[in-house]
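User: I'll paste a sequence; please echo it back and then give the predicted structure.

Assistant: Echoing your sequence first, then the prediction.
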Amino acid sequence: MVNLGPFQLTMNQYGTVKMLFLALLVILALIAIALVVKPKIQRRMAAKKGADVTPENA
């Protein structure tokens, strides 16, 4: 048994919770990366089209 305060979990349940937590962290990391990378990609696409790339329309 793993004792986490009021939560009494068997090792199997603890493993499942740990996997869910890791999956959540991975999803959050992917969202953060997407938010950072997306504007750069959009700017590059606009530059390729020959559009005027300024902070206003980036």
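The mean pLDDT is 80. The helical segments are 11-49.
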